[in-house]
Amino acid sequence: MRIRNKRKLLVRYLIVLLSIVVFMTVMLIPVYLKALKSARLHSTDFLSGTINNGVLHFERSINSAISLNTQMQSTAFSEVKRLDDASFSPENLVKLIQVQQLFSVITRNIDPGHVFYMLFNNNRKVITASESSTNTIYMDNSVFFSTYMVYEALKENVLSLLARLDSSGIGFIPSTSIRINFSAAEDYLTLIVRIPGSSVTICVLYKTSELLSLLGMNILPDAAYLSLKRDNGSEIVSTKAVPRNRDRYTEISFEIPTIHGVLTVGVPESFYIEQVRETKKLVDRYLWGAIVLGLNYGPDRDPLEALKARSTGAISVYAQGDDYHELIKGRLKTLAGKIVARAGGAEALRPRTVGQQRQRAALAHLGRGQHRGRSAVSALVGRVHEQAARPGPQAGHAV
């Protein structure tokens, strides 16, 4: 009989635990899916706004570079760009210095351009403007590209690349490693601008890392990708190859009419899941889990048999024997100690001292401690025993 009762209790406990798991799962899955949908919606809106602002900023910089040729109109500039190498005189050199000073002033407000240089197509002169280095005049462009502006990863002559422009007068040297003024090499994107009919080529260098940050890549995980391509298929900037599992990415695209290009940013699913994890922390504060433990305190015999004796009182099983509070508490402490030790924790499970136990026992006797229920049970048991000692059918039944 005792084994059968234990089996019934075990089945009940398992059903309760299974019900709790199912209930929490049913409640949590919709919350998770809703949070994921909300994270994708709001994060995509935020990213779209960030990328759009970066695109507009980049496009303004390009338009400013395009207008440089017009802003540079001055007597000195007009004369210098018409001269060939044999025509240069000391007086022309002074005019070239004036052009360089004007160029450095005009380019200061162009952001995020890092370095600017201007090549004169009728001669071999080059002037530079940069906030991080000294503005310089080079009398020979071959010296310029071999000492000051070294495109390390390009085997082809840079001058031939600069000459390849489409009908719009705008071109790019894709992001590549460049060593500027003997400094450590970094990746730069080179914008090439030449107004049709002009004899001057203006180049703007954008540091690739800063440009990627401007376009929102600094807030995305490493798995994200960016690709900036022109309509003719030529790639200007890219962070990595487009992954094969593109279905697990959300792509955000913007057109850049000025350069006839399209910017595409791929956001991995992991980015949105990470946002949900942060949201889930808030949910966890209000989500409680329970570990349900059971202890069978049934006797060896069937306690319901006592109800058949109508002449005597029946005492509840939990009220018989040792105090079940102390019994279960001791076993719970043992179990908790094993869990903490197995998990590598250092939480102390301190047993009460003898003095503390006596104090609590005294409070329980007065009905003022945590075990007030125990003193009431004791009193009830005492009354039941008194009634059980009386003869007759008036015997009580305490359940």
How is this structure best described in words?
The chain has 399 residues and is an alpha+beta fold. Among the domains are: 145 residues, PAS domain (Beta-Lactamase, 2-Layer Sandwich); 97 residues, no CATH class. Helices cover 45% and strands 17% of the residues. It has eleven helices and eleven strands. The strands form two sheets. Strands 3-2-1-7-6-5-4 form a seven-stranded antiparallel sheet. β8 and β9 form a beta hairpin. α1 packs across α8 and α10 crosses α11. It is rod-shaped.
Give descriptors for this structure.
399 residues, seven-stranded antiparallel beta sheet, alpha+beta, Beta-Lactamase, 17% strand, disordered C terminus, four-stranded antiparallel beta sheet, 11 strands, 45% helix
Structural topology:
Layout: H1 2-66, H2 68-71, H3 75-80, H4 90-106, E1 115-120, E2 126-130, E3 137-138, H5 141-148, E4 149-151, H6 158-162, E5 170-180, E6 186-193, E7 200-207, H7 208-214, E8 225-230, E9 235-238, E10 249-256, E11 261-268, H8 269-284, H9 324-342, H10 354-366, H11 372-389
Antiparallel strand pairs: 1-2, 1-7, 2-3, 4-5, 5-6, 6-7, 8-9, 8-11, 10-11
Please report which band the strand proportion falls in: under 5%, 5-15%, 15-25%, 25-35%, 35-45% or over 45%. Answer: 15-25%
Second CATH tier, the architecture of the domain at 67-211 = 2-Layer Sandwich
Mean pLDDT: 79
- In the sheet with the most strands, the strands line up as 3-2-1-7-6-5-4
> What structural class do the secondary elements suggest?
alpha+beta
Tally the beta strands. 11
**How helical, in percent, are the residues?**
40-55%
So how many helices? 11
Relevant CATH superfamily of the domain at 67-211: PAS domain
Which residues form runs of ≥5 with pLDDT under 50?
A: 366-399
